[in-house]
Amino acid sequence: MNGLAQYDGYRFRKFYKNKDAIAGNWVYDLCEDSQGFIWIGTREGLSRFDPRLETFENFRNNPGDPTSLFCNQINALAVDTQGKVWIGTPQGLSVWNSDSRQFQTIQTYPLNRPIRRIIRSQGDYLWVATAAGPVRYNSRSGQHTFYPFSVQPNAYGDHFWSLLEDNQHLYLATGGNGLWRLPYDSVAKKYGPFEPLNHFPSQTLERTQIFDICKSPDGAFWLGTDQGLARLTQLHTPQAQLQWYRTNASNPQSLSNNLVYRLYLDRTQVLWCGTEQQMSSLDLSLLPFRSFSFSTGLADNQVRSIATDAQESVWLGMSKAGLYRYSLLDGSTKKYEFDTPFWNDHRALLVSSAGDVWMGTLGGALRLKKSQQIETELKGAAVFCLLEDSRKNIWLGSNQGLYRHGFDGTKVRVRLGNTDTEFIRSLTEDQSGKLWIGFDNNGLGRYDPVTGAFERVQGTDSDRLGTAIYTLVEFPKM
Do 111 and 218 sit in the same domain of this protein? Predict the structure, then answer.
């Protein structure tokens, strides 16, 4: 209705329908393809914006050309792994091929039904929300699986508004029946059956229209609805909670309107909410802290190291109480304690690309393999930092020098200049593959794993480096 706006961080620039701009003023979806073009789906056609030339190209249906856009109302857009643009319309699914500059219409049921959302899945797969239920579609082969699902539509006939894939489970935001999930069984390697996620203590989403859904790094699900902004925490556990953020006329910092159509979580953890009236934003980093306590309850069991894995678990290395694994999915906790006291005094954690948990302790280094077998990787040295480099080697920084456990199984003690016994506090790898080493009492060093060359890095008189370097990070990552 109000066209397209471009924001460069300083000002908004607006574009409206005309022969040199967008195809229509009602904009339903946006996406960026692999060539940097911005695709704009409107109610009156499809537009492509070239940011280098700042020009628009518009596509509309031509009844005499079967390779033209077959429907002018564009509800959904997505780009696949091959760079093809997929287009969802009230009349079904279409795809744009940039090589032939032609559109192909998919005639197969139910992909010829009204489509509201398309999202990327794993590999070459797409999830397509049709009026008859979701379809998992292989964009390379054309093979697909249909999961029939009937829900109550809204007054305008919209069945599904949004989709979210998380840990291979598919979450569906509906037009009249709240939130549902199509679970994935990793053992049987199949989906289903559908399950509702609508009932919470003294609250329900059962008749709520959910327009959009996203997930924040803390595991919370955020819903844009016709009743405000909703936050779901500890979903799939008995402790699941539903919290609402709504407009409040006496609070100018509240949500601008309770009709929340679109959600976007940016890299700085600000949640942007497109509402009926204005744009609202919520800085998630300012939300209240959640505190966690464990079975021992001892105040002197400080958390000394933290790592996360692909299964949405948080690993905590404690000062004296060993290792804990906390599941963000179900809130369960598992403790790993070792017979030797120094093995329970943790200083570093690393979850490797192989899925193993490496532990740096005051007694050495341990490795918890995916099979739950624990192996001793280093004895007699206190390990304060761990690093997996781009070549899959594991580096251990200790109070007795630097060690490398190669991806091929070799174990080497590394000599840095004239010594191999310096106390190492921190490690990081830069974009060129060199290691930066923070020492406990000797500043900063740089090591080339290929040539073996090592050099001390000195600060200037006006920008002096400290002698003890506790952490290192390269910014920005290239």
Answer: yes
Q: The domain containing residue 101 runs over which residues?
A: 4-286
Same domain, 344 and 446: yes
* Cross-sheet strand order for the sheet of 333-336: 303-308, 313-318, 323-327, 333-336
pTM tops 0.70, yes or no: no
Stretches where the chain sits below pLDDT 50 are 296-300
3-state secondary structure of 128: strand
Number of domains, the chain: 2
The whole-number pLDDT of residue 291 equals 60
Q: What is the CATH number of the domain that holds 391?
A: 2.130.10.10
DSSP 126: E
For 110, counting Cβ atoms within 10 Å of its Cβ (0-12 exposed, 13-18 middle, 19+ buried), the class is buried
As a whole number of angstroms, the distance between CA 107 and CA 301 comes to: 62
What confidence tens digit (pLDDT) does each residue in 206-258 have? Answer: 999 999 999 999 899 999 999 999 999 999 888 899 999 999 888 888 899 99
The verdict on residue 360 lying in a domain is yes
Buried b (16+ CB within 10 A) or exposed e, 75-88: bbbbbbeeebbbbb
CB atoms within 10 A of CB 55: 11
Using an 8 Å Cβ cutoff, are 31 and 77 in contact?
Answer: yes
The pLDDT of residue 300 is 45
**CB-based burial label for 349 (10 Å; 0-12, 13-18, 19+):** buried
Answer whether residue 292 is part of any domain: no
Overall residue count recorded for the chain in this entry? 478
Q: What is the pLDDT of residue 297?
A: 47
**Residue 23 Cα distances to 39, 77, 384, angstroms:** 11, 15, 59
Per the structure block, which two tokens stand in for 89?
A: 């319309």
> Which residues, listed in sequence order, are joined to residue 271 by a DSSP beta bridge?
265, 282
Helix, strand, coil fractions of the chain, as percent rounded to 5 = 0, 45, 50
Please indicate, yes or no, if residue 190 is contained in any of the structural domains: yes
